[in-house]
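User: Batch of two.

Assistant: Item 1 of 2:
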Amino acid sequence: MNIYKKNTLFIIGLTIILFLNIFYVFLFRNSIDQPELPDSYKSYKAFRDTTTKSLNYEITKLKGSWSEKDSFEEPIFAENSDFVVLHSNLRPSSNGKSLFYKLDKNAKLVDSIPDTYFNIRNAYLINQDSYCTWLTDGNKVNKKYIDINSDTEWGTKKVQKEFKLLMNKAISIDFFYYDYLWEDHSKNHEDKIDKAIFLIDGKWYALYGKDLNLPIYLTLSTQKEELFRSKFTHTLLADYFHKTNSIGSNEIIWNGNAYFNFIKEKDTLKIFQKMEFNGEKEDLFLTYYGSKNINFYLILNEYSEGYHIIKPISNK
């Protein structure tokens, strides 16, 4: 046998060994020694793939006038309201325009409005020039802020004093940099005149001045908004996790199915979904949203692709 044939056989041998090694890793290293799925979980449904029902409730994909390609944020609630607002395409792209959709207490789509706003504060839609009360009362008319110092000629000390007075009365605050307010090379732009707005007794007031951006006040306002949203955010922990295979070769993170019991009025929706497990059962949970004033719950889908809705089964 000449040297070329020997080299060829050597290369073939190495290839076979490499293939067997890969086969071992994927077939054996990633396989697990785990009992079969317990009988008590075999009736659970993959709710993201099919409508799942219990005796009185069902979970299904929420349908609306929006596109299947639209992305969504967490649902928006207003204090003591009997509706919920959905926000699509926060960052408009090829998916489509950014819109707000309003659902009544039974999840019926009743209204929508284009998103031309900068932020949401205490259920008000706000931008640099005006605010809108549509979230709470359905009025789509933009309202002007009440200017405290519209001439923008106040001195720094006077502005700061007024800022603190307004801040102590306000239940919400927001801020706009001068770059968003004025045309380039205008006097207010060159003077770097910022704008702070304050919600007091149901009306928004505007204060103008240089270097108004006081982060601690804005941080407190943001924290209050997050605390408000958390009242409508609920967590459902998994009842059981069934491993299918490990991720990589370290056997620390596993693929598998997490099984959940959504219990409502002595009724139970039995559902599961694919998840990763790192050994901490507290990390196996579903987040859902709802309030005592509406008759359904929402689950934001993976990659923000719409929602699933949990609602009573209609008797019609």
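Item 2 of 2:
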Amino acid sequence: MIWLSLILFAFALLLMQNPRRKKVDSFFQLEATENESFDAINVKDLVAKSAWQTIKENISSNVGILGPRPALYIVLYLSFSAVSSWFVFYRFLAFL
């Protein structure tokens, strides 16, 4: 058991040996990013959006999580919810 703890301690020391700052500096040139760049400004974000556009952006990002067939999953979920709520209402609550 002590050998396992020594091996894990050595592994932790190896992980702590290389700081992330050196890895980031090797991939990015920090001097080049300090200059102001006006090419990265998204002009569409500066214009006021309508309510429909904000709803569409919020829904499209959530629907993208569902995978390759989001419409099928949404239809199946709504169908199952409607059938199960109808069943519960008429089976258990209609006789009250």
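Helices lie at 2-17, 20-27, 30-33, 51-63, 70-93.
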